[in-house]
Amino acid sequence: MKVTVVPSSVSAVGFGSDQFLISYLINDSVAIDAGCLGFFGTALEQSRVRHVFISHTHIDHVASLPIFLENCFDGRADCVKLYASQNVIDCLHQDMFNGRIWPDFIAMSSPATPFVEIVPIVSGQVLNIDGLTISVVSVDHLVPTLGFVIDDGKSTVVIPSDTGPTDEIWRVASSKPNLKAVILEAAFPDRMDGLAKISKHLTPATFGAETAKLPRDVTMLAVHIKSRFRNEVVAELQALGLSNLIIGEFGKVYEF
Ligand SMILES: [Zn+2]
Ligand SMILES: [Zn+2]
């Protein structure tokens, strides 16, 4: 399985080392979150993505969604499918596609020329899309949030999205005999543990505690590190001594 950590910052020489916004591409046609999906590559490249899962409504996960849907629109009936909980769909409709921030692409999606097809999903659901089996599992974040366990038959990769300490997704992941990698957040340094707790994010210490809930040989790809604290968080993650830790690089394609 090919997983691209979509870059969201640029420097004079290419992609920056900060992850301001969150999107992951699975192979070429499935995306998890649309924080920076609509700012990546060309409109034609974006239009190869046919299925977008939205974990939750925070802006770092949905910021470029209107731009992405506009870039994909070509007037054909076969449009992008957007998978999200009903709670997320309602928020996106009321707060983003409301005719003020952006045109109401949801109401404008007539059968002849749709911008987007909305597919409500719930925790516990399993979907089969383009050779992937995607299990949907609730995690523990400040707003209703879904994580994803993605299996292509050879490898399973877990993208919990934003979460504090959690359990159910690790239970589902551990049931997969081919579990290869977890793309896990480490938002704040350990000294900001209080902030991490109230905002339901992880620190390196709690990242380590979540890792201990998984089989030992699973690759842990650390992402969603708040940019102002990146060096501190990376040093603390490396001090955990996990042999299977990778600090996520942006624009990089990982093969699992
Ligand atoms: Zn969030
Ligand atoms: Zn986030």
Describe this structure in words.
The strands form three sheets. A seven-stranded mixed β-sheet has the order 8-7-6-5-4-1-16. The protein is built from eight helices and 16 strands. The protein has 256 residues and is of the alpha/beta class. The longest helix has 10 residues, at 86-95. It is globular. It starts with a strand and ends with a strand. It has a single domain (2-253), classed as Metallo-beta-lactamase, Chain A (4-Layer Sandwich). The mean pLDDT is 95. The structure holds zinc ion (ZN) (2 copies). One zinc ion binds next to loops.
Summarize the model shown.
This protein is 23% helix and 26% strand. It contains 8 helices and 16 strands.
Shape-level CATH architecture = 4-Layer Sandwich
Show unreliable segments.
none
Heterogens: zinc ion
Q: Which CATH class? A: Alpha Beta
Which secondary-structure class do the elements indicate?
A: alpha/beta
Main beta-sheet strand count, sense and barrel state: 7 strands, mixed
CATH homologous superfamily classification = Ribonuclease Z/Hydroxyacylglutathione hydrolase-like
Task: Please supply descriptive tags for the structure shown above.
Metallo-beta-lactamase, Chain A; single chain; alpha/beta; 256 residues; 8 helices; 23% helix; globular; binds zinc ion; 26% strand; 7-stranded mixed β-sheet; 16 strands
Give the topology, please.
Layout: E1 2-5, E2 10-11, E3 14-15, E4 24-26, E5 30-32, H1 43-46, E6 51-53, H2 59-62, H3 65-72, E7 80-84, H4 86-95, E8 116-120, E9 126-129, E10 132-138, E11 146-151, E12 156-159, H5 168-174, E13 179-185, H6 193-199, H7 204-211, E14 219-223, H8 230-239, E15 245-247, E16 253-255
Parallel strand pairs: 5-6, 6-7, 7-8, 12-13, 13-14, 14-15
Antiparallel strand pairs: 1-4, 1-16, 2-3, 4-5, 9-10, 10-11, 11-12
